[in-house]
Design goal:
Helix content is 78%, strand content 0%. It is mainly alpha-helical and 286 residues long. It has a single domain (2-285), classed as UbiA prenyltransferase (Tetracycline Repressor, domain 2).
Length: 286
């Protein structure tokens, strides 16, 4: 049980809250309301397993880098609370659960699974060669709503599937934007290690400005989703709240003052994902 707790701490399982509401957003939009219980259960299982796999691979890929970074040197692998082999076993189990969940949904989700695994396993390595790693992470998380859409409708490549693609890129820029903010903590370390983060290449001020632009694009894409789906007033109220939360998030962080970054990263983003999901569900049901 200690190893299980250490594993959950390693992958920050509680942070699934960031992406799960967007998976549910794709689910309820695809269903035009509430999905079947079968769909809800297996989309939830798939989402949790996918994030577990992605985070486990991230921790394994970065274990030597994290050991040299003062900010991350106390993580479970680095502190000896959990062994590498335990993480490997957890990673393999999560793949099996994800594959079974995809099989339970429909043939398309199973067909799309290998591509999703490439991004889930590979995004951690991208910061070794490109400053676009933040948005590759965002795209990987953006697979959650389009995957949930596919799990309900069994299609993603028709004209009627446009909202799923809008959600994919909304999440891409949302996650990419706040990963830019989070990466500002490691600017000097990334330069020392020759890692290709945006703050390391151009500095915190440029990274934070790019994060603002990314989140403006997020709002525009969510607005496009609302227009295409014909969502009502409650959705637009929710989007207005999300916009205000994003503005507040950016007000907390300055290029030379990152003291409130945990509030911006962990608290505000949780509120954002829950708000847009609840507003969308309410708009559909009402």
């Amino acid at each position: 049980m200690k190893q299980v707790r250490a594993f959950l701490d390693l992958i920050k399982f509680e942070h699934t809250i960031f992406a799960l509401p967007f998976a549910y957003l794709g689910m309820v939009l695809a269903a035009g309301g509430l999905p079947t219980l079968h769909q809800f259960i297996w989309i939830t299982v798939a989402m949790a397993a996918a994030r577990t796999f992605g985070m486990s691979m991230n921790r394994l890929a970065d274990r030597h880098i994290d050991a040299r970074n003062p900010r991350t040197a106390s993580r479970p692998i680095q502190s000896g609370k959990i062994s590498v082999w335990t993480v490997v076993i957890g990673t393999l189990i999560s793949i099996l659960i994800l594959a079974f969940a995809a099989w339970q949904l429909n043939p398309l989700t199973l067909l799309l699974l290998p591509g999703a695994l490439v991004f889930l396993a590979g995004y951690a390595y991208t910061k070794r060669f490109t400053w676009l790693s933040h948005f590759i992470l965002g795209f990987t998380d953006g697979l959650a709503p389009i995957g949930a859409w596919a799990g309900v409708r069994g299609s993603v490549f028709t004209a009627q599937d446009l909202p799923a693609w809008l959600l994919l890129f909304a999440v891409t820029f949302w996650i990419g934007g706040f990963d830019l903010i989070y990466a500002c903590q490691d600017t000097e370390f990334d330069r020392t290690e020759h890692l290709h983060s945006t703050p390391a290449r151009w500095g915190n001020a440029v990274a934070l400005r790019l994060a603002q632009i990314s989140h403006a694009i997020t709002v525009a894409l969510l607005a496009g989703t609302g227009i295409v789906m014909g969502l009502g007033l409650i959705f637009w109220i929710g989007l207005a709240i999300v916009t205000a939360l994003l503005i507040y998030e950016h007000s907390l962080v300055k290029p030379n003052d990152l003291s409130k970054i945990n509030v911006a990263f962990f608290n505000v983003n949780g509120y954002i994902s829950i708000t847009i999901f609840v507003a969308t569900l309410a708009a559909i049901l009402m």
